[in-house]
């Protein structure tokens, strides 16, 4: 874990990215036990469902990458509007019920105080820390957005992206190359369905049936899990053999040619990102430090100054 002085310095550098004033102590007076309530609720849910940590971390990424960190990903669709969570890239998101439980507990303790956007940001930190990863001080004070559109989810970086496309996608949100490589390490938690990578396994090109950047033995194991045609919609692959532990094994997998997504594997073979991948693979402490710094930076993307604190995270007030 990086020293608080280091985190604070990073916060000062990052502050101009957001449109609102955030602070570590934002709820100290109005809801002093907010972070304890969030942590306890998430820990209990994770005990009963091991997929919760990966799903909550992914939820944070998918929220911040569309309209900024405004909890728009939590809004349900209405007859008049199809919301982000029902956009094609978000259909595999889950654990919304955990955020509902957190919000219910917070409303009992301190009504109309803690935003859903802050809940998502704090939850992402907590699931990383409880999975063995770094801890950082989350800046708080985000407001909840009122707009959520499914058609905007096409702007999420796809697992088929190459490194140039990834760099541009992250740059559009004020994030640098190092942020891209560090935040990609979030794939150390979780699972992917075949549909996200089967293009690498069958009819990859006119020359190769299988993506040649894949380790041959690994590719064969993926083909067995994802045959063509595939009748099992739930079939897929752990993104990392230690998928319930937050560690740097993701980068070691990439170096071994075992990155599940094309976007993951491309990071090794690009001069702008390859050395960073190797550095994180060789030094977990460095990865943890950079991941925490990049999560703070991501958490400041598109923060709302004028919004609301939703009473129900699934609907505007």
Automatic annotation (TrEMBL):
Matching InterPro entries: Haem_peroxidase, Haem_peroxidase_sf, Peroxidase_pln, Peroxidases_heam-ligand_BS, Secretory_peroxidase
Cofactor(s) needed by this chain: heme b; Ca(2+)
Catalytic activity: 2 a phenolic donor + H2O2 = 2 a phenolic radical donor + 2 H2O
Compartment annotation: Secreted
Alphabetical keyword list: Calcium, Disulfide bond, Glycoprotein, Heme, Hydrogen peroxide, Iron, Metal-binding, Oxidoreductase, Peroxidase, Secreted, Signal
Marked site: Transition state stabilizer: 58
Gene name for this UniProt entry: LOC101266098
Primary location group: secreted
Annotated Ca(2+) 1 binding sites: 63, 68, 70, 72, 84
S-S bridge residues: 31-110, 64-69, 116-313, 194-226
One BP annotation, GO: hydrogen peroxide catabolic process
Family membership: Belongs to the peroxidase family. Classical plant (class III) peroxidase subfamily. Belongs to the peroxidase family. Ascorbate peroxidase subfamily.
The protein's name in its UniProt record: Peroxidase
EC assignment: 1.11.1.7
Span of the signal peptide: 1-20
Residue positions binding heme b: 187
């Amino acid at each position: 874990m990086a020293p608080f002085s280091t985190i604070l310095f990073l916060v000062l550098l990052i502050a101009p990215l957001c449109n609102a004033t955030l602070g570590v102590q934002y709820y100290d007076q109005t809801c002093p036990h907010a972070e304890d309530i969030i942590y306890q609720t998430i820990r209990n849910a994770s005990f009963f469902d091991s997929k919760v940590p990966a799903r909550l971390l992914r939820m944070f990424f998918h929220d911040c990458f569309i309209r900024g960190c405004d909890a728009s990903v939590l809004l349900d669709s209405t007859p008049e509007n199809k919301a982000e969570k029902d956009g094609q890239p978000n259909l595999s998101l889950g654990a919304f019920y955990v955020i509902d439980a957190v919000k219910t507990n917070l409303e009992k303790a301190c009504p109309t105080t803690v935003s859903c956007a802050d809940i998502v940001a704090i939850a992402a930190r907590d699931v990383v820390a409880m999975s063995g990863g770094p801890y950082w001080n989350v800046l708080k004070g985000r407001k909840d957005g009122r707009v959520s559109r499914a058609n905007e989810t096409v702007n999420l970086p796809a697992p088929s992206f190459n490194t140039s496309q990834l760099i541009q996608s992250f740059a559009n949100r004020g994030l640098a190359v190092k942020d891209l490589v560090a935040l990609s390490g979030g794939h150390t938690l979780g699972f992917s369905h075949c549909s996200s990578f089967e293009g690498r396994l069958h009819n990859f090109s006119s020359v190769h049936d299988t993506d040649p950047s894949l380790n041959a033995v690994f590719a064969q194991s993926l083909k067995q899990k994802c045959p063509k045609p595939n009748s099992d919609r739930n079939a897929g692959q752990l993104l990392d053999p230690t998928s319930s532990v937050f560690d740097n094994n993701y980068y070691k997998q990439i170096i071994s040619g075992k990155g599940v997504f094309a976007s993951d594997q491309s990071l090794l073979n690009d001069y702008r990102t390859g050395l960073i991948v190797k550095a994180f693979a060789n030094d977990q402490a460095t990865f943890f430090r950079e991941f925490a710094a990049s999560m703070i930076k991501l958490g400041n993307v598109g923060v709302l100054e004028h919004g609301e604190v939703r009473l129900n995270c699934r609907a505007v007030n």
